[in-house]
Design brief:
Number of domains: 2
CATH topology of the largest domain: Aspartate Aminotransferase, domain 2
Order of helices and strands: HHHEHEHEHEHEHEEHHHEHEHEEEH
CATH superfamily of the largest domain: Type I PLP-dependent aspartate aminotransferase-like (Major domain)
Number of strands: 12
Shape: globular
Strand order of the largest sheet: 1-7-6-5-4-2-3
Largest sheet: 7 strands, mixed
Bound molecules: pyridoxal-5'-phosphate
Length: about 400
């Protein structure tokens, strides 16, 4: 047989499954179990059995369904191990708990997903862990100047939630490691197909599988992929906290991920078409899509990312009140008003109230509007959005 490294799309189809083990089932079925019987006393009493590869010691430590998705994500991200959590946010909080202790300082990108910020400001603060926000466009020099004796970790999210700043991940991880920091990154936007955090120096790569991995807006899931240094501490923390993704959800993720490399290029292509059209509209001040040459960090995106997904935002040229935004969004035919993204359908989220920021300004002058471009015909989406922009009140323009 010719030596050949299969491409990610082939691995998405052939990885994370084993028909011979599962009665010929092409996709691993959802194993539903709490109790897992050990074959004998020796096995039952083996120390640390729950950490063995392919272990099924108890439902809370994962089933064969979990093991298959873990293996596939570990392979796609080039990590050592993956743990599966019940939501993207629980993946974020578990990873942070694995790294941080009382008295530590966390450097957090200011454009982080809102509930991550909320967790830092409530639970971490209560535990005596300080969060210091840094600009999403932080340079390595600025990062070095921020590191103090208690600084333990840097959390990146690229592009940033709602405002889509792209971060220079390889430069930042290099500086972070020079100062002994651990780097975590929320990689949900790009998925493991379009950005490889660990290859760019990140230690713990986080994925809200709820979005593109599941891909059909019908299940919640989170994943953390760890490098060699963090694989064991991460799994220990996950077991200590008692959180694990449901096997049904894990099965849905295994089912969804098979088509990731078909869906993502369509989201990417259609989102660029819609974004370019929005740039021609007088109601729009700026379009924030990393794949557009007009994006301030387009060059970093083009250097580091293999593609773009369907999520981006635009800034309205004029301030709008609630009534103005309602006029635009309420009668849209194809864009649903929904907080999530990554499913097959298009969504719109007007940033109202604006997401919280501590050290960096949101682009203006008008409100941000976030779009998820689904798998519909982009011409239909453009017609729908055009009618919505036409409905913006004249006084607000
Ligand atoms: C960038 C990002 N990270 C994490 C999450 C959290 O995922 P979940 O809703 O599965 O907890 C979201 C959800 O919208 C998100 O947009």
């Amino acid at each position: 047989m010719v030596e050949h490294t299969p491409s990610p799309s082939t691995r998405l189809v052939h990885g994370g499954r084993d028909p011979e083990r599962y009665a010929g089932a092409v996709n691993p079925p959802p194993f539903r179990m709490s109790t897992a019987l050990a074959p004998d006393f020796e096995t039952f009493t083996r120390p640390n059995r729950k950490f063995e590869p392919d272990a099924t010691a108890y439902g809370r430590f994962g089933t064969p369904t979990h093991r298959e998705l873990e293996k596939l994500l570990t392979e796609l991200e080039g990590g050592t191990d993956t743990v599966l959590l019940p939501s993207g946010l629980s993946a974020i909080t578990t990873a942070l708990f694995a790294v941080l202790e009382s008295g530590d300082e966390l450097l957090m990108t200011d454009s982080v997903y809102g509930p991550t910020r909320y967790f830092c400001e409530t639970v971490l603060a209560r535990m005596g862990i300080t969060t210091t926000y840094v600009a999403p466009t932080l340079t390595p020099e600025e990062l070095a100047a921020k590191v103090g004796p208690a600084t333990k970790a840097l959390f990146l999210e690229s592009p940033g939630s709602m405002s889509f700043e792209v971060q220079d991940v390889p430069a930042l991880t290099g500086t972070a490691h020079d100062h002994g920091l651990t780097v975590l990154m929320d990689n949900t936007w790009a998925t493991p197909l379009y950005f490889k955090p660990l290859a760019h120096g990140v230690d713990l790569s986080i994925q809200a599988g709820t979005k593109y991995i599941v891909g059909h807006a019908d299940a919640m899931l989170g994943a953390v992929v760890a490098n060699n240094a963090w694989a064991r501490p991460l799994r220990e923390r996950m077991y200590q906290m008692g959180n694990i993704a449901g096997s049904e959800e894990t099965y849905l993720a295994l089912r969804g991920i098979r088509t990731l490399d078909i869906r993502l290029p369509k989201h990417w292509e259609s989102s660029v078409l819609v974004a370019k059209w929005l740039e021609t509209r007088p109601e729009v001040a700026q379009v924030l899509h990393p794949a557009l040459p007009s994006h301030p960090q387009h060059a970093i995106w083009a250097r580091d990312f293999a593609g773009a997904s369907g999520l981006f935002a635009f800034v309205l040229a004029e301030p709008q009140d609630k009534a103005g935004l309602a006029a635009m969004v309420d009668d849209l035919a194809y864009f649903g008003l929904g907080s999530s993204w990554g499913g097959f359908e298009s969504l719109i989220v007007p940033g109202y109230p604006a997401p919280g920021r501590s050290v960096s300004a949101l682009p203006g002058p008008g409100p941000l509007v976030r779009l998820h471009i689904g798998l519909e015909d982009p011409d239909d989406l453009i017609a729908d959005l055009g009618a919505g922009l036409d409905r913006l009140p004249a006084s607000g323009r």
